[in-house]
Amino acid sequence: xxxxxxxxxxxxxxxxxxxxxxxxxAINAMCYSFNQDASRRAFLADENAYCAKFGLTPAQRKAVxxxxxxxxxxxxxxxxxxxxLAGIFGLNVQDIGALQTGKxxxxxxxxxxxxxxxxxxx
Length: 122
Description:
Number of domains: 2
Helix content: 55-70%
Shape: globular
CATH architecture of the largest domain: Orthogonal Bundle
CATH superfamily of the largest domain: Dioxygenase LigAB, LigA subunit
Number of strands: 0
Strand content: under 5%
CATH class of the largest domain: Mainly Alpha
Low-confidence stretches: none
Largest sheet: none
């Protein structure tokens, strides 16, 4: 049976599918734990030990240490879980969007405004 691929991936994006979910289980589980304040405090107190507790891969640990959100995504991180970690780093959604697109935050904000104008024109 042939695998159906409805749309080709958007250039520069990572598809979060079953393989990515399996690859990113450890980092996503860790990020989910940040729903608890005690977990956020434990991470900040000893980041390496906290990453080890969840069994992050070397690539995931490097991306976390480097504050490399696109690298975390490439290592299987789901942006919805990573948003919890990004918040610990002091990053907001627009910061993450800028990182993902290779733009400055100001450029990314202008890009979003321009997209809104294009949608309004129809």
